[in-house]
Design goal:
This protein is an alpha/beta fold. Bound molecules: guanosine-5'-triphosphate (GTP) and magnesium ion.
Length: 245
């Protein structure tokens, strides 16, 4: 599923790497995250779902001062998965070569970004910034949050028979070739199971999945969007994917 939205006009030619930052109420975090990515020289596309806290207006302001930053405004909260889908379609149309997913809440560090990009470029498929491999770490999460994330990974790995240690990580990079081969229209996940479905689809298409260690830090400010409803929907979606294998 995807839907129109209002996109900032492009004023410069695309860079090789497009970094997509989905936002819903990230006003306190966005500027710092955008600055970190722009420091590396990559294009940024913020996908804001009409955040009530004014994140969209802040994103427009950042875009006004930097040609490398653009914003896709969507009418309402349509889910992180569909935000990435819409952004990938735009990047594929425009000719970007590598597509990065990154949280806009400060959990993913810009200093880990280029090693994920390099791994994707080198493998030709998907590179995942992994918290659950040697060298990977999580800072600042309470025990229940760790348990939820660990449990989600075991659940997906078992049901979908994935040999990936961190299939729920939202810090990753896809090659253009892989995304072009992916039927974006057929993706069923709107929300958080998108990450898992994309790993599953990558494996089924026969593209490599590689993992590189990252340090994940708890969000700097603002609230998590992972609700009970989102968790249940994600569990169901993964179950559906496993039976339709
Ligand atoms: N555009 C858009 N962005 C979203 C939506 N839901 C979450 N996001 C963004 O996606 C990123 C990840 O969401 P988080 O709430 O941080 O989820 P999380 O990182 O899995 O959970 P926490 O660790 O609790 O923060 C953040 O940048 C959010 O603002 C949505 O429906 N639409
Ligand atoms: Mg987060």
């Amino acid at each position: 599923m995807s839907g129109g939205g209002r996109l900032t006009e492009r004023k410069s030619s695309p860079t090789e790497v497009l970094v997509v930052l989905p936002t819903f109420n990230e006003r306190e975090n966005l500027e710092r995250v955008v600055a970190g990515v722009r420091h590396l020289g990559h294009d940024v596309l913020v996908v804001d779902d009409a955040s009530p806290d004014g994140t969209g207006e802040l994103a427009d302001k950042l875009a006004g001062g930097d040609r490398g930053v653009r914003v896709l405004h969507r009418e309402r909260k349509l889910g992180i998965g569909s935000a990435y889908e819409d952004a990938f379609r735009i990047g594929l149309d425009e000719g970007s070569s590598l597509f990065v997913e990154m949280d806009a809440d400060g959990s993913h560090r810009a200093q880990d970004l280029d090693k994920i990009v390099d791994a994707a470029r080198g493998s030709g498929g998907l590179a995942i910034g992994s918290r659950y491999m040697r060298g990977g770490e999580i800072a600042g999460w309470p025990a229940h949050r760790l348990l939820l994330s660990r449990g989600a990974n075991v659940y997906c790995r078992t049901l979908l028979r994935l040999r990936v240690r961190d299939c729920t990580s939202g810090f990753r990079c896809y090659t253009r070739q892989l995304l072009a081969a992916m039927q974006l229209d057929e993706i069923v996940s709107q929300g958080y199971s998108f990450q898992i479905e994309m790993v599953h689809r990558t494996v089924r298409l026969g593209y490599p999945v590689v993992e590189v260690p990252i340090r994940f830090e708890d969000r700097v400010a603002g609230a998590s969007k992972v609700s009970q409803g989102e968790i249940s929907r994600a569990l169901w979606t993964v179950l559906r994917l496993s039976v339709s294998r």
